[in-house]
């Protein structure tokens, strides 16, 4: 069993109890000298029977006395380094679904930096089962684009349409394609895609990938990139298992969305104005 290396520096600890109180797993306690410790039976055990691996203890300590998983508190970002409310509002109001992309790639290093942020996305019971399959190279994306398109048109001739689409739905997509997504109704000519998947049957496995998709959408916006969360290509792939296998999603994994992203062809000059459409209801008991 591998230790989680929970440590409290007695010279820095002020015995405030915040780490113990913030521990969702209830596995921290004060020893005889008033120094926080982890229960021996929980050390190295992840999940409900041990540590949630949430690092709340490290994050809540006002003096940086707590370390876990060999993490140094000095390496953590501080709250004051984050976006303020107005900056977050501007980011969210200016984020748009992008269906027009430049014909160039986002550098691999930048994509990896964005993906590493997804290690912070909330997951049910903090089980952290998410996986991220990404197409880095546009040339590879173009191969997939061609395969899906050819197979989708072949299936349509047999009366088989993407997902739950009807013939009428399919014809509408064909009608829209030249003006909306020239030549690619499935992946909207995005140079990259990201498929987020989870472990079936563990925690909130159907919800976790959707939360991560929403996070990545905003991460793209913060990098000046366009992105779009798509279910249409998932519906198309559901009828072409041989092509779907190319995404390398094991049978015990779940995905329901594909994100396209890249440099937008057209920058947007301002955010939209959606005030007044939220359906808000106060609850009283």
Written description of the protein model:
The chain has 285 residues and is an alpha+beta fold. It folds into two domains: 1-80, Alpha-Beta Plaits (2-Layer Sandwich); 88-262, NADH Oxidase (3-Layer(aba) Sandwich), CATH 3.40.109.10. 31% of the residues lie in helices and 12% in strands. It has nine helices and nine strands. The strands form three sheets. Strands 5, 6, 7, 8 and 9 form a five-stranded antiparallel β-sheet that branches. A two-stranded antiparallel sheet has the order 1-4. A hairpin with a 5-residue loop joins β2 (28-30) and β3. The termini are far apart. The model has no long low-confidence stretch (mean pLDDT 96). Pfam families: Fer4_7, Nitroreductase. Belongs to the nitroreductase family. GO terms for molecular function: iron-sulfur cluster binding; metal ion binding; oxidoreductase activity.
Q: Count of DSSP E strands?
A: 9
Helix-and-strand structural type: alpha+beta
Radius of gyration: 23 Å
Total separate domains:
2
Question: Can you tell me the CATH superfamily of the largest domain?
Answer: NADH Oxidase
Name of the CATH architecture of the largest domain: 3-Layer(aba) Sandwich
Unreliable parts: none
Largest sheet, strands/sense/barrel: 5 strands, antiparallel
**Any idea of the CATH topology of the largest domain?**
NADH Oxidase
Protein name: Nitroreductase family protein
Family: Belongs to the nitroreductase family.
Keywords: Iron, Iron-sulfur, Metal-binding, Oxidoreductase
GO molecular function: iron-sulfur cluster binding; metal ion binding; oxidoreductase activity
């Amino acid at each position: 069993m591998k230790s989680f290396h929970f440590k409290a520096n007695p010279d820095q600890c002020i015995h405030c109890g915040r780490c113990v109180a913030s521990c969702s797993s209830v596995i921290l306690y004060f020893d005889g000298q008033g120094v926080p410790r982890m229960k021996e039976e929980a050390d190295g055990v992840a999940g409900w029977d041990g540590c949630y691996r949430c690092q709340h203890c490290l994050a809540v300590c006002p003096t940086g006395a707590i370390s876990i998983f060999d993490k140094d508190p000095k390496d953590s970002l501080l709250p004051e380094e984050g976006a303020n409310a107005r900056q977050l509002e501007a980011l969210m109001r200016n984020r748009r679904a992008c269906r027009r992309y430049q014909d160039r790639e986002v550098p691999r290093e930048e994509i990896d930096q964005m993906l590493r942020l997804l290690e912070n996305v909330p997951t049910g019971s903090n089980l952290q089962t998410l996986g991220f399959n990404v197409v880095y190279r546009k040339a590879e994306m173009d191969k997939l684009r061609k395969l899906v398109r050819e197979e989708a048109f072949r299936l349509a001739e047999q009366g088989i349409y993407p997902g739950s689409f009807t013939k009428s739905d399919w014809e509408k997509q064909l009608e829209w394609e030249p003006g909306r997504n020239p030549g690619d109704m499935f992946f909207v000519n995005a140079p990259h895609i990201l498929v987020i998947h989870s472990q079936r049957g563990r925690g909130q496995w159907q919800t976790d990938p959707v939360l991560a998709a929403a996070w990545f959408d905003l991460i793209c916006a913060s990098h000046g990139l366009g992105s779009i969360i798509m279910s249409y290509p998932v519906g198309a792939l559901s009828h072409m298992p041989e092509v779907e296998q190319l995404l390398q999603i094991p049978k015990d994994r779940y995905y329901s969305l594909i994100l396209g992203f890249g440099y937008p062809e057209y920058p947007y000059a301002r955010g939209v104005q959606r005030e007044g459409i939220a359906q808000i209801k106060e609850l009283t008991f």
